[in-house]
Amino acid sequence: MPETMKNALKSMLTVLFFAGFSALVSLLGIGNESIIMMFLLSVLFTAVLTSSRLWALCAAVVSVMLFNYLYTEPKFTFQVYSTNDLMMLAFFMVTAVVSGTVTSKLQTEMEVAGRNEQTTRTLYQIATGFLSASGQESVIMRAEDLIREYTGLTVRVELSPDTENLPGGYAIRTPAGTLGRLILSGDRPEGQKELIIQAVSTQLGIALERERLVSERESIRLAMERERQRTTLLRSIAHDLRSPLTALSGAGNLLSDHYGDLTDAERRKLASDVSEEIIWLSDLVENILNMTRINESQLLLQKDDEVIDDVVGEAVKHTERLFRDRKFSVTLPEEVVTAKMDGKLIAQVIINLLENAARHTPADSKIALRVQAEPARLVISVSDTGNGVPKEIRDRLFERFVTQDDRIVDGRRGLGLGLAICKTVVEAHGGEIRYEDNLPHGSIFSFTLPMEVRT
Amino acid sequence: MSEKSTILVVEDDHYISHFIDISLSKENYKVVIAESADEGMFLFSSHKPAVVLLDLGLPDRDGMDLLRELRAFSSVPVLVVSARGQEKEKIAALDLGANDYITKPFHMGELMARIRVAERTAEKSGSAVGETTFVCDHLEVDYEKRRVCVDGAEVHLTPTEYKTLLLLIANRGKVLTHNYIIRQVWGYDSSDSKSVRVFMANLRRKLERDSAHPRFILTEVGVGYRFAEE
Fold first, then answer.
1. Closest-CA residue in chain A for B191?
2. CATH architecture, domain B133-227
3. Which of A65, A186, A266, B180 is found 20 to 30 A from A135 (Cα to Cα)?
């Protein structure tokens, strides 16, 4: 109703203003033909101001009556003597109605066009608004922001397919079905606002579907990568197992089939070869086992407060046999220190580093294992005085299956898993592993482990 | 004596039991092999072995079951054979009364040493401990004067450390779990093994020449400690 009141007031004021103005003009002795034009103006203005044909019509009727009352003979009555005046009033009436109608219609159409343009722009902004959002969270936040910005309403997005039949709100539909609902905090709005909310809801559905596809594609890619790594792992394991197995079955066959033909020394040599091969195989199996633990669910750590002496001792016990012809030294921190770690895996890291040092250095090299306690971390390093790591593989040193293929050591290449395991284990502990050159020659592999500050 | 005692091997893997049989026979032990828990139980009562070598993964029943059954009526030394990485199982077996364990893959020498320790423990439980000193390599302990010397020089040990050292020496060759040490030395049960680890590492630094290559106090990762004599 206030709209009607406002329009009535507008029409009245317009007509009164022009009536007053016409009174002023008539004092100057201007003829009725000009004065009636004033009243025509009042009708046109009313049409423009109210955009309503009805009020233009009312203004025309009131204008006719006012003109008749004020300016036609006899004045101050509603009677008309002259046919001339009567004709004028009739023509005024027709002109006013026609022009008022046309003007108000034009006005309405302009307003509608303006509103449509605004709506189109809003819808466009909504559609592009989702383009820059990535990730489900930010897409949903963007939807809520857009609705607040364009309608001033607060909405909540609920993602759950079984909200389909809930009353209220707007369903978020995608080609794959309803994902959830936009829940309004207040009443259901009308017209323009409803249109905007529906548009946001549609765009939200599309954006969410897009996010789902992206994450699906990512997980497929990861699965393929895992599968590829597993295949490579299996292939290299099979490859690496073939040569020791050939040696083992050969030695076994010789011993069982030709025992009598062999000399004592030959038998002894075959038997010791067998046990050496088997030690190598056991180490391989241990590394493969650790590798599977790493592959499954991002490494299961069994962390405990370990005294670093114990872990180092365990690693040294396993590798000491490799250092018979090399100078090997161990330096431990002054005080007994503990750190949270998976003792077996950290021991495996140290074992792998020590084995690498033994495998890739010439005899008589010095190999040093050092543990230093810094305020908040342990630094464990293995240094040697060998030839260092070749430049070509330095960048990929900690990746899987990187080996010094050209320089086959001990007649056998490693799996190239050792350092990759080290890196994964150390990083899972929140530490880091790195390589640097030892001076004047050789290499240093060092890694850190975070340590709780002692109280 | 030319013929040593009888050893019962409960193991279902033929290859493993075969080489254990050969190696033990070479050392003049009499070997009896059972391939299942039930057969083990039967052979135990018919042969009265001096030591039992028990594999935990058996076809008919869990080796742990057999251990529990044995312990109900016999205190025969039991050596558990288990795979690497099963620390919880080892601790459980030790808590159930197993004397020691050995991890696959193992060397024959290691197994022989464990068997000798187990035999000696069984013998010693009868005789009273009359020694007044313990001497091994560079370590010397005088029980009467409560003196501990490393390379001839006296080392100061706190009363708790001394008590722990005596406990280790008394059980030399055998694995003592963290929990066992806490119970024996401090007198309460605790699942917090950190303090024991730090404590043992400190003790080791006092007694060993090189704590990265311990001579006496060996760590059994995830399980406990073993005092090495040989």
1. A304
2. Orthogonal Bundle (1.10)
3. A186
